[in-house]
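Changelog note: in this version the structure field was regenerated for every chain. One regenerated record is shown below for reference.
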Amino acid sequence: MEKSCSLLVHFDKGTPAIANEIKEALEGNDMPAKIDAMMKAIMLLLNGETLPQLFITIIRYVLPSEDHTIQKLLLLYLEIIEKTDAKGRVLPEMILICQNLRNNLQHPNEYIRGVTLRFLCRLKETEIIEPLIPSVLQNLEHRHPFIRRNAILAVMSIYKLPQGEQILGDAPDMIEKVLLTEQDQSAKRNAFLMLFNCAQDRAINYLLTHIERVSEWGDMLQMVVLELIRKVCRTNRGEKGKYIKIIISLLNVPSTAVIYECAGTLVSLSSAPTAIRAAANTYCQLLLSQSDNNVKLIVLDRLNELKSSHRDILVDLIMDVLRALSSPNLDIRRKTLDIVLDLITPRNINEVVLTLKKEVVKTQSGELEKNGEYRQMLIQAIHSCAIKFPEVASTVVHLLMDFLGDSNVGSAVDVIVFVREIIETNPKLRVSIITRLLDTFYQIRAARVCTCALWIIGEYCLSLSEVGSGIATIKQCLGELPFYSVSEEEEATESSKKDNQVNSITLSSKRPAILADGTYATQSAASETTFSPPTLVQGSLTSGNLRTLLLTGDFFLGAVVACTLTKLLLRLEEVQQSKVEVNKESTRALLIMVSMLQLGQSSVLPHPIDNDSYDRIVLCIRLLCNTGDEIRKIWLQSCRQSFVQMLSEKQLQETQEIKAKAQISHAQPDDLIDFYHLKSRKVKGSVIVCVRACATR
């Protein structure tokens, strides 16, 4: 069975030390060599070696040394060696070290005394410790606080031994006297900790006696006080009231660690709204005052836990939580938004959305590197707010549409998806959204955003002016036809032929040469002239975003353009009385579609049009040439109905997920229930009646 170990030191097994070499170094007078030998001996012992032959050598040559490093290594060595035999009795040679430890406990150097007292805290052998108790007790009154605080810990460790109460029975009395007179905060904390672990009643009595001065104690002592309060209140919940007052008083101390522990203690001991609100306010203050991102993440986790059990209280603090968005860290911002989105109510939705809008505007400054990602998170948060509370959509949709041309494709896609959903769920905003979309369409540079925007234009341009503006916007963004000139195609064809044949042309110059046998031969000197591949035709920013994307070979977008034009022309036939105008627009749309097919089949682009896009554009051409009522119904009504069905299914799925989260069981049907109201008030102590709850259906 593996033994317990209180010390871990890295050891490189590739360079093993020999016991004889260590022994020789320890017997020498070279102090650095002796230190190195002690380190090697400790490493070997920690890795399973026994080295019994070194003990006497260390007693003779290392024990008398006055060097502080040697003395510290000696104590580490004594800590890890075997001190008992197979029957558990202390080895006789261990008596040799008792006198040395006693001398160390009376040493004039404070460091030697302190590390020896600390060493005694890890000793478990009563036979070794018992002769040292008088020296340990003398150190409780030493003038130096470093020695006093370690002496208190040594007394606590001795008292906690199996026979500790017999060999040091009056330890609680002595430590209580020390606690009353001690001025050093660290030593005072150790004394209170000893009473807390070994004589809890004395610690409680001291705490209640000095209850008015708890807020003036050091933070280390206050942390132990909070630990004592948690322990006492778990065993005796009837006394929570007087301890809650102590916790409330500690919420105003300067130490942030104490404040954090106070908030956690309040939440664990009480579910009263006043206590929970005080804890939540404390967490919000820490969230704003601390600069360490790790601290902020931990505090946000605590707020998230409070949200699940005390949501109504956190709703009032939602604006305080939102201030955490001022941190530049994305993880903090993400957690903050997740918490806030679950706390939104009709009462605070306007304030939350206003704050989110301000944050979106701040991301336009471009000062921070990850503004695009943060903007995407904000857009998603605003989207969620608008879905839950449709009345706020009108205040944010136009602001967000300014980011349709965002360089961050993810945030631009989120905006257009949000616009697509809002225009369906808020019919009153349809006209303003369509007008704004047509005005800003030329700014869109991402193909995914363009396809979604084109679908919106095709589905929601209903009036004559809207349909006309939609067709005109698409034509303007496509630019002048054709998409390429004949000379460009010829150049591309010639270049491709040259590439298919050879990548270079060899030019030879011939001259006669005389061979070894006296005959003549022709020698060629070859030189290579390299030709660069043909330059692809690219659109410029001034030529329209759709044209630019088409000339890069995005024919899926071309198919979407064809479908959008088809829908607009089918609707134009319904709202335009003049057949001449309808025929004109249809002819221009057909010309655009045919030009896209020619572009896809030409050699100007590096790859031809794919079959799916080709079939889709051809279908649109055939439809415009021969339309029927059934086809018109499918294109103008069925597409919208499918989208509405998708939204309803999405909303249903979200509702089911919320219900599933609400039904998560935090306790099993057969868990024990403690009825604290049935505690006996007459009998000293308490009687807890435990009833096993049975699940009934």
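Spot check on this record: The two ends are 50 Å apart (CA to CA). The first helix runs from residue 19 to 27.
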